[in-house]
Amino acid sequence: MIRPVRATALAAAAVSAALVVTACGGGAKDSADGGGQGKAAPAVGAQDLNPHPVEDLKQGGVHKVSIQQWINQYNPNQTDGTQGDASAITALVEPDLFTFDAKGVPHSNPDFLVSAKVVSSDPQVVSYELNPKAKWSDGKPLGVADFEAQWKALSGKDKAFQVSSTSGYDQIAKVGQGKDEHEVLVTFATPFADWQMLFDPLLPASLNAAPDAFNKGWAGQVPVTGNAWKVGAYDKTAKTITLVPDPAWWGEKPKLDKYIFWAMDSKARTDAYLNKEIDDAPASAPEAYQRLKGDKDTDFRIGARWDQVTLNLNGARGPLQDVRARQAVTLGVDREALAKVAGKDLPFRPGVVNNHFFMPNQEGYRDNAGAFGKRDVARAKKLLDEAGWKDEGAGKPRTKDGRPLVLEYVLPADAISLAEDQAKLTQQMLGEIGIKVDLRKVPGDDYFDRYVHRGNYDLTQFRQVDRIYRSSSYQDYRQPDGDNSFNNPGRVSSPEVDKLLVEASRTTDAEKQVALYNEADAKLWELGHSVPLYQRPQIVAIRKGLANTGAPGLGDENSVRIGWLK
């Protein structure tokens, strides 16, 4: 499957999507019919990749995976490039400086780094010693110019760069050469705890140097690569992107001949897998799991991923501009009911999430939802009363100045039935407090580009994934800057939240950092920024003959070692 998205390449994947899931060793026991609802989610560190040494693998073969939409923007740092499939593909073809173990701990990738370490704490200085063999597809070696251009593009100083996040980069004071052309020194004006998050992936200076290249140079293509894989073909008619091994690659050669990504409707994925048109398929939705579990050529691989299903509220338009209306929506939704629907017939029940920054099975998790943690219809109605929305009686929307209280819930037209069921359930729940919810289906390929990223919705449900570096979440909750909402399309934030998140990113004391994130989390619940629903199960159906891929949880797959068993 696709490598998990990390660092600044943050995904917001629709519930209809099955992106970046991988699997563990022996496959899950079929317990769906035997009370799986009572079983806890896998613990942190759980992964299932069916590990095998390369000697067990055939040389060659094709790995075919599905993605949720055709990719229009491959720059993971641009505001339209945060869609998960795009970032995951980019991570396979661009320099990946750090890899993660099963517990989400980063380690230097020797293909690109001889070493990376903090060499001074006051000021904080990080030394990156680059592998002298590492080079771009245009023949240029990786070097200080690439680091400097990426820093300047993402620092936030030049507003012409339409960046999704400035986190960490805005704390850098300078980037310079070290003892030779292979050492880069990055000096921070203020400490940055998650420094490994930066420059990963590293992108070429030529495509970061000017706003036009940054914003438009990656539209529909990856112009320059620098990893084991390169793009062999884009076929917009067939909706496939084919990766092939780069013959100039200096590291361990891939076992596969081709890696094919096929954009298809979410509803088509299970059929495509059962017809052997793709090699893995998401099995986290009850309907998919039930259909796939009878296939005898299938492993179910399960991991513990940072994967939160979120109901996002748009505070930039309409009734939800009023914090009381957003709080009423939060109180009007029964999250336990939504999690129960999501876990029906699965091997374990998804856990409701009461935190924006931590998963329930993660160290540091605190329940900060407070009074917003449980559905409270009476309080929700009172808040709407206070906001001036008059109760018109059961079954009717409230009104204000002659206008009905109506919210538009946007979802992809290709959404699987679970997403539709949850949308309709949310519609019913909010109807009980006097909020009429209109469901609007939009083309799957347009869902992010024209609706979520543009703020063209009142309510929508999507996934936030792989926030292993907590400071990477800053972009989801920070205050917008003019037209740039970063990765906060609902534009709900506050100076207090901003201050806490910036302070947390500059705090190297782990205990204090956790406390700051939890303090910010409590304020986000009060603001009605969004409603964390549950931790999405990481369950993948995958061909039994595929090795070293599946459900990596918090870790990474090594794409060059993915292959078919002899």
UniProtKB/TrEMBL annotation:
Keywords: Signal. Residues 1-23 form the signal peptide. InterPro entries: Peptide/Ni-bd, SBP_5, SBP_5_dom. It comes from the Bacteria. Residues 30-50, 473-492 are annotated as: Disordered. Residues 473-491 have a biased composition (Polar residues). PROSITE patterns: PROKAR_LIPOPROTEIN (PS51257). Residues 117-473 form the Solute-binding protein family domain. This is ABC transporter family substrate-binding protein. It comes from Streptomyces roseoverticillatus.
